[in-house]
Amino acid sequence: MIAGPGSCNFIYKAMKKPAPKPAKAWTSLKTNGEFQAIYKTGVRFFTKNLGLFAKEHAADFPARLGVVASAAKVGNAVHRNRAKRRLRALAQKCLQNQASDTHDYVLVATSATNKCDFTTLENDLQTALRRLKLGI
User: Fold this and answer.
1) Of the given ranges (60-64, 102-106, 116-120, 131-135), which has the lowest mean pLDDT?
2) 60 by DSSP, 3-state: which?
3) Is the separation of the CB atoms in 62 and 99 below 8 Å?
4) Which residues are registered as beta bridge partners of 50?
5) What is d(CA 120, CA 34) in angstroms, rounded to the nearest whole number?
6) Is the pTM higher than 0.90?
7) What are the start-end ranges of the E strands in the chain?
8) Which of 48, 81, 97, 114 is the one with CA 20 to 30 A from 73?
9) Distance of alpha carbon 47 from the chain centroid
10) Fold of 24-131
11) Does an H or E element contain 44, and which?
12) Nearest to residue 97, comparing CAs of 129, 56, 131?
């Protein structure tokens, strides 16, 4: 059978195209050494709901982002993964528009990250960026 405009296969194939993903403004931090360099030499600010580490880098590289949730602070794997998803969504919404491109960032989940609402997380991140003078 030939798949033409009137057949189900044609309609299914036309609908199957995935939606384009939004472009990231940064790449991911991957190795322990990259995280440790930011922890040791970067600036930091913690609120009740999240922590932010930042370190300046050369302007010819894109900004990098790391998200950390420890078992001791956040809890089991389900809670850690939820906290990391929330912080990634927060970075997508806030860091992409308000943060400097010449810095690497590490967002740290705390025990309260999953308990607060998203607007509180946004306000805390904006406070951290303002206090560290990292906003655009």
Assistant:
1) 131-135
2) coil
3) no
4) 109
5) 29
6) no
7) 26-28, 43-46, 50-56, 63-68, 103-109
8) 97
9) 17
10) Ribosomal Protein S5; domain 2 (3.30.230)
11) strand 43-46
12) 129
Structural domain boundaries in the chain = 24-131
Do the strands 50-56 and 63-68 form a parallel or antiparallel pair, or are they unpaired?
A: unpaired
Report the candidate in 88, 71, 98 with the shortest Cα–Cα distance to residue 28. 88
Alpha-carbon span 104 to 93, nearest angstrom: 16
Pull the structure tokens for residue 76: 């089991």
- Rounded CA separation 63/23 (Å): 13
pLDDT tens-digit map of 19-71 = 555 555 678 999 999 999 999 999 999 999 999 999 998 888 888 999 999 99
Query: In 3D, which of 55, 56, 88, 54 has the Cα closest to residue 69?
Result: 88
Name the token pair of 103. 């810095």
